[in-house]
Write a structure and sequence with these properties.
globular; single chain; 1 helix; 486 residues; five-stranded antiparallel sheet; mainly beta
Length: 486
């Protein structure tokens, strides 16, 4: 990837797992105290099926399992790290279907606490928190125990067919005590709709309270993007939340938004994309629309990769995927760069077929402009998202795109494998000042992308010298906050 480096890129390890798969994206933390970052990710068998390997912790040195934890259903969330045991090893907070959300001891994977929906069957709010848990955020200590706490949403109902309203329940925004799992606050979506969107939280300049951004709606149901404060959530007053944007075309807000200062006024602005591929850039100071862009004839559940792609200014730009067709019959993918300054489409291509992973970002050739590293699936896109049956015609690629030259660099190719959901991770695992790339690929000889038949997790030790850590090196950014630093 970097022709100026004498170091050669190589596969440092390639770990295979039978039967299981994952919709999770890897995150990294040192779990065994050896100074090398280890990989944590959710996993599992098919939906509603128990697996001994629901959460995996892999040694960053060689890919071997440090520990594993079982799960009654798929764990598709990405890990949040916070030390609650006081041993200076990050503990793991992660969730998924059925519902499943747990705190695990980072050293050995033991369950520290787990959410139990049966305890809340009669609660007027928490009785609805019986669906899926998405990605969580660490927030300041809310219960006075000296440990930060957890913000998360529960929502969605995968057993309800598209376009069907009956049986759906409102999403629930929740605060957990990180130490013991006690629910400190919870409230339903103001519009009573479901939620699939991981919330984000940040503090604006000189603000006394934290801003929380969350969303409602789904692939076939209208929804809203909301702004509230942590105090209003603590007081169960989400009814006071302000609507920042709406999609009334049968689409909600699924992909997590990004907080980034795009008008250079010192405030975090909010950039969000609806499932109907309408992108809203919202002024963080007064909530006015800075710009708005719609990519007609497409849909998306993909979040953004954020970096400086256009080379024209110091305003961050936004990379995402959008998909042709109508869910669940999506069939083709477009790669899009939106200029952060005015929202115009600065780059558009069509590489591979539908998938719901996101991009990671780094200046790979040190020219001052960022590139993206993405996962691409190659098969016959005309057959649709569910139509491919010939495993010999399926391949997954990991590529880098350099936007200024419009060129692509191949990093890896795996025949008979694909990746629908998992975002790569990049960073320096072993402290050698060279970029490592960790990614997942899933064995595929069936048209159903939700059927798991086995997976690979790979680490590539690249020849890209690192002069700084990646800002957007994982799903929702390197720290998982979806906040792009000013």
């Amino acid at each position: 990837m970097n022709a100026c480096s004498s170091k050669k890129s190589k596969v440092a390890w390639d770990q295979s797992f039978s039967i299981i798969g994952s919709q999770s994206s890897p995150r990294a933390a040192d779990l065994n105290g050896d100074g090398i970052l280890d990989i944590v990710m959710g996993a599992g068998k098919n939906e509603y099926v128990y697996s001994e390997r629901g959460v995996l912790a892999l040694n960053g040195r060689d890919g071997e399992i440090i520990w594993q934890q079982d799960a009654q259903d798929q764990v598709f969330g990405s890990a949040t790290f916070l030390d609650i045991t006081g041993d200076e090893i990050p503990d793991v907070f992660i969730g998924g279907r059925s519902p499943n959300y747990r705190a695990l001891d980072g050293r050995n994977g033991n369950v520290l606490w787990a959410y139990d929906t049966s305890l809340y069957a009669d609660d007027p709010i928490l009785k609805y928190a019986r669906c899926n848990f998405y990605n969580s955020q660490v927030i300041p200590d809310q219960d006075g125990d000296g440990i930060e706490d957890i913000l998360i949403v529960n929502g969605g109902n995968p057993i309800i067919a598209p376009y069907v309203q009956e049986g759906r329940v409102p999403g629930v925004l929740m605060i957990f005590s990180a130490v013991n799992g006690k629910i400190l606050a919870a409230d339903t979506m103001p519009d009573g709709r479901e939620s699939y969107m991981s919330p984000i939280v940040f503090r604006q300049p000189e603000a006394d309270d934290l801003t929380v951004i969350f969303g409602s709606g789904g692939e076939t149901l209208d929804g809203n993007l909301y702004m509230t404060t942590l105090t209003d959530l603590r007081n169960q007053n989400l009814v006071n939340a302000k609507i920042l944007a709406s999609d009334t075309t049968g689409h909600g807000f699924i992909a997590p938004p990004v907080a980034a200062d795009i008008n250079k006024d010192g405030y975090y602005d909010i950039v969000a994309i609806s499932h109907g591929s309408t992108i809203f850039a919202i002024n963080g100071k007064d909530q006015s629309i800075i710009w708005k862009q719609n990519i007609e004839g497409t849909e998306t559940s993909n979040s953004f990769g954020v970096g400086y792609f256009t080379g024209d200014d110091d305003v961050p730009d936004f990379f995402t995927f959008v998909h042709e067709g109508v869910w669940p019959d999506n069939y083709g993918t477009n790669e899009i760069v939106l200029d952060g300054k005015d929202g115009h489409i600065a780059y558009r291509d069509s590489i591979g077929c539908t998938a719901f992973s996101s991009a990671v970002v780094y200046d790979l050739n040190h020219d001052g402009n960022d590139e993206v590293i993405i996962s691409v699936n190659d098969f016959d896109c005309s057959l649709g998202f569910l139509g491919q049956t010939d495993g010999d015609q399926i391949a997954n690629r990991i590529i880098a795109i350099e936007f200024k030259k419009g060129t692509q660099v191949s990093i890896d190719r795996q025949e008979r494998f694909k990746n629908i959901f998992s975002t790569p991770w990049i960073g320096d695992i072993d402290g050698d000042d060279y970029l490592d790339i960790v990614f997942c690929q899933y064995f595929s000889v069936t048209p159903d992308p939700l059927v798991f038949l086995g997976m690979k997790v790979k680490r590539i030790s690249s020849n890209v010298a690192m002069d700084e850590d990646p800002v957007w090196g994982a799903y929702m950014g390197s720290d998982g906050s979806s906040v792009f630093p000013k």
